[in-house]
Description:
Blueprint: H1 15-20, H2 23-37, H3 47-88, H4 93-108, H5 128-139, H6 148-159, H7 164-176, H8 178-182, H9 196-202, H10 213-218
Amino acid sequence: MAKDKKSFILYVDQKDLWNKLPDEIAGKLIKHIYSYVSDENPKSDDLIVEIAFEPIKQQLKRDLKLFEEKRIKRSEAGLAGATKRWKEMPNDANEWQTIANDSKRINGIAKIAVNVNVNDNDIYNIDYQALLDFVNTTFGRSFKVVTDKIKRSYKKLLKDGYKKEDIINAMKNCKENSYHKENNYQYCTLEFFSRAETIDKYADRTIVTESDGILAHLNKH
């Protein structure tokens, strides 16, 4: 598994394969998978395990390749963004105040979808009440609070290079996903969308535009 990659995905469309396996073989297979993603190069003397593992292994390889491509892109984008911010950094307090005032006016009319912040740490902040309202409205849920644990998970997502657009895209795609529709969105929780594997799986299918007011509300000022 790639460095810093702490998770992997097993897909719902693999369910039939698992259901056809005897429990004993399924147990061997899941242990085999964990050994594989831990870079232990496992070998099994059970032919059924080897046969069942092959399509899963190929999917894991495809997921790993996608993860590496995204990691490289995020790294390059982060470096370019940091360089740009450094070059544009104001030299005196008056300029900082001008930027702060302009930022409030721009966000007030919801014409930006990303942060324009005086403090770089603000890019990791989310208006969790806005996020809570969006999830409840989108999935017909009635969550009351966002726990500190979940807040830390979202902050880690942002620090790892994910964007607020990615989080909202994942939610919007799950709204249209047939599996989640059939299950009445019971898995579409705030905790579910705080996982990197969820964002990796669902974020890339639509594009959030500047007209999506939720992004303006997610930014804290």
